[in-house]
Amino acid sequence: MVEIAVVGGGMSGLSCAHWLMRRATAVNLRLFEANSYLGGTVHTVLNSGFYIEAGPNAFLDNKPETIELTRAVGLEPQLVRADQSAARRFIACAGRLYDVPQSPAALMRSTLLPLGGRLRLLTEPFRSRGAKSDESIAEFGRRRLGRWALERLIDPVVTGIFAGDVNQLSMASAFPQIKALELNHGSLLRGMLARRRSATHTGKKLDAGATRATGGLLSFRYGMGELPAAIARQLGDRLRIAHRLVQLNASTDQRWEMRFETPAGFESVKADLVILALPAFTVGELLRSVSAEAAAASRAISYSSAVVVGLGFAPDQFKPPRGFGFLVPSMEKKPILGCLFASTIFPGYHVPDGHAMVRVILGGAHWPQLVDEPDDQVTRLVCNELSILFREPISPILVEIIRWKRAIPQYTIGHQERVLAIDRLSSQFPSLFVIGNAFRGVAMTDCVAAGKRTAGKVVERLRAQ
Question: Which domains does the chain have, with CATH numbers?
Answer without folding.
Answer: 2-40+226-301+412-464 (3.50.50.60), 58-100+213-223+303-409 (3.90.660.20), 103-207 (1.10.3110.10)
